[in-house]
Amino acid sequence: MSPFENVREAFRSIRANLLRTVLTALILSIGLFALVGILTGIDAMKNSLSETFASLGANSFDLHAKGYNNRGRRGGRQAKQYAPIDFLQAKQYKQAMGDDAQVGVSASITRAAEMKANGIKTNPNMEVVAGDENYLKIQGYNLASGRTFSQAELNNGANVMIVGDEIRLRLFPKQSPVGKYVSALGRRFLIVGLLEKSGGSMGGGGADRLALLPLVTGNQMPRQGALTYDIKTATDQQGTLNFLIGQATGVMRAVRHDKLGQEDSFVVESSESLASDLESISGKVRVGGTIMAFITLLGASIALMNIMLVSVTERTREIGIRKALGATAVQIRQQFLIEAIVICLMGGTLGIVLGVLGGNGVAVLVGASSFLVPWVWMIAGLIICVGVGLASGYYPASKAAALDPIDSLRYE
User: Which of 56, 138, 237, 355 is the most buried (most CB within 10 A)?
Assistant: First the structure.
């Protein structure tokens, strides 16, 4: 019997036991759906974040006071917390760096602001940030209309604001917000610019929920505690990032009065370090998801082996007839192995397709913008299908091949 005849015989047997085969294939497809879906979703979200890091600038880094970057706990141990970077220190750092780099200073005023205009209110989830003249450029934000802050507005702390697209949709759905007034945090601001729609990153709203104030204005806003200032430093010169980080570290140590031999009271965070942390986290999630998916595949392989054993028992007389007509043990074994592999490929193909669609669907829900086709995981899924078919079908196939033809012909 040729391999093609074995394949046709496998499909004939599958049609004869269609319901049982479909249920087994579905169990396998669920396992591969979980495996491919988890891995595809992780890779799609990782690619989205990598694009976000790239859009923030490959030649840039952030400075935070140590203990104020929400990543102070490492290995279960709480890192020492230092005083936040204040307004004077940020200004001194920016002046000391001079023309060697572009320095953007900003401070988050609140992430739960409610804005009002013409009797309409936004949801209380708008982010208000105070920034200097370099903030928009370094963050990669572009204006859709209007203008940036003038030097006089920056120096004098004017009540002006640049808003994101979601704020425009809420308060001025049918007109441009530029030149209009909006009330927020107990003050009345003139909108001078509108940011381009960003679509957000990982569901956070991105620039769409952002309201930007001049840095001096934000420093004058009433608040309960001192603001924590973030500093982003960028350069247009390729290959100078490491040198610039070293220079910035020395300047910030002098500004912060870190003593000789004392550890830095601040953290330097580049896009490369963020990408490294992302890779570490995604790797752990990938391992956990893979383990859960393989447990499901193990259950599917056990179910498939059970079905193949039942099939061998039901077709004992048929096996005897084939052996009487000259079929060898090898041919009988091949027939049942091919049948198991065909069932696995049917269920596995469905699971892989659903996994790719499901993984990308989850990634889109949390902010990914591109559709990822994970060829590596798809090929790996097909290899797993063949492996499961061989592992589950070998024992039943060997049992069928070992049957005595005379006893098989007597079987009822």
Answer: 355
My answer on whether 23 and 136 are in the same domain is: no
Alpha carbon separation from 115 to 143, 166, 190, 211, 287 (Å, rounded) = 20, 11, 12, 10, 44
DSSP, res 159 = S
Question: Could you read off the pLDDT of 231-263 as tens digits, one per residue?
Answer: 888 877 766 777 888 888 899 999 888 888 888
Q: Quick: pLDDT tens for 384-395.
A: 878 877 887 788
Those residues with Cβ within 8 angstroms of residue 216's Cβ, 6 or more apart along the chain or in another chain: 130, 154, 155, 156, 157
Q: What is the pTM of this model?
A: 0.53
Full residue range of the structural domain in which residue 235 is found: 83-264
Alpha carbons 128 and 185: distance in angstroms, whole number: 9
CB burial string 331-359: b at 16+ within 10 A, e below: bbbbbbbbbbbbbbbbbbbbbbbbbbebb
CA angle centred on 229, ends 62 and 183, rounded to 5°: 120
Query: Is there a single domain that holds both residue 244 and residue 322?
Result: no
Rounded Cα–Cα distance for residues 403 and 389 (Å):
21
